[in-house]
Design brief:
With about 290 residues, this protein is an alpha+beta fold. It has helices at about 15-40, 60-140, 150-155, 170-180, 200-210, 220, and strands at about 185-190, 195-200, 225-230, 240, 250-255, 260-265, 270-275, 280-285. The radius of gyration is 66 Å and the shape is rod-shaped.
Amino acid sequence: MSHTAHIPSHRKPRQRASKSALRAGVAGGVLSTIAVAGAAGPAQAEPVTQTIEMPTITSGLSTTVAASAQATQQVALDLETQAREDAAAESAAKKAKKAKAEAVRKAEAEKKAEAAAKARAEAEAKERAERASRTAERTTLSAAPSSSSSGNSASASAPSSAPSSSSNATGSAASIVAFAKAQVGDAYVSGGTGPNAWDCSGLVQAAYRTVGIDLPRVSQSQSTAGTQVSLDNLQPGDILYWGGAGSAYHVAIYVGDGQFVGAQNSSTGTVQRSMDYDRPSGAVRVL
């Protein structure tokens, strides 16, 4: 055995051939890159002078916008037209409704007018008949004695058709009562003295004039024209008054059986009523 067999060697181990080759290749590549860069380094790049034209889109866009605007305008016109048509239809409907209502109103008014005209005609015919009857009664009364002194003959001259309520009236009282009752249904007119319209004192004055007695014209004076009598001791022909004696505001003629005849007011005209309807304040006896 050699005496140097166990002495370690101080030399580095050899590198493998593959690693050496790899390193050689990398070094060669780096050197090549440097060489290329050096060769190209001094040269300057030429500026790009070519102009690239972009496609023009303005013309197409304007056409689209114009078409859109036209479409929008048309829609607006259509809406406006529709609104006008709707408004016209609504107005026509309102006018038709109003015309119908007016036609109905006119028809009702004409119907009422016809009914009123018919009622007036009937009332006028009735009034003419009543006036004719009253005229006949007045003609009869005009033949009655003009003085209360001829009481018996006046009683005989009183109309046989006088109401039974005045059957207990005699002489001039019967004539006064008959005249007053003949005016029932006549109109009331302030200041009226007949022959078909009266106020309260005008009727009383006319009734007494048929027997030749001239009374004062107004109710205040008529309420003191005779002897004051109690309302419990009345006789046909007595003058009833409302208010105070000498300041009465209304007068009427007592016709018997608790009834009176008076020209009341414009609503009722001349009527015959019970004393309970409107109790008088007092009475005077002229006959």
